[in-house]
TrEMBL record:
Lineage, broadest ranks: Bacteria, Bacillati, Actinomycetota, Actinomycetes, Micrococcales
Presence of the UniProt keyword Kinase in the record: no
Molecular functions per Gene Ontology: DNA binding; DNA-binding transcription factor activity
Species of origin: Glutamicibacter creatinolyticus
Protein name as catalogued: GntR family transcriptional regulator
InterPro entries (alphabetical): Tscrpt_reg_HTH_GntR (IPR000524), WH-like_DNA-bd_sf (IPR036388), WH_DNA-bd_sf (IPR036390)
């Protein structure tokens, strides 16, 4: 799972974020320790700690002294909202701009998206 595409500490943070968004890690759930991450991914514990601490700084995790790190209340909702905003900026806005250039109206664009979504779902249109 860990690769050379970006810094390892960012990948650790993203792994935890993905687990929060998908529900694998619920609010108030304990997150694996930095030593567990280090052993599992064969990385330096300081690198794992840097990824975890990034999420603490962003208010997604919190520390219980002597016990470990836990998912903060509202973390999933905050992550989903941030990802929706990123999705809109990264994909929807350029899509809408290109559709406008091509003279594709709103309804036609909606139909195209529904068709593509149906193909991905295996349902067709």
């Amino acid at each position: 799972m860990i690769d050379d595409s970006k810094p390892i500490f960012l990948q650790i943070a993203e792994l935890i974020e993905n687990d929060i968004v998908s529900g694998v890690l619920a609010e108030e759930a304990q997150v694996p320790s930095t030593n567990e991450f280090a052993a599992f991914y064969r990385i330096n514990p300081a690198t794992a700690a840097k990824g975890v601490n990034r999420l603490v700084e962003n208010g997604l995790l919190y520390k219980k002294r002597g016990i470990g790190m836990f998912v903060a209340h509202g973390a999933r909702d905050r992550l989903i909202e941030a990802r929706r905003q990123h999705f809109s900026k990264q994909y929807i806005q350029p899509l809408a701009a290109e559709a406008q250039k091509l003279g594709i109206g709103t309804q036609e664009l909606i139909e195209m998206i529904q068709a593509a979504h149906g193909q991905l779902s295996g349902k067709g249109v």
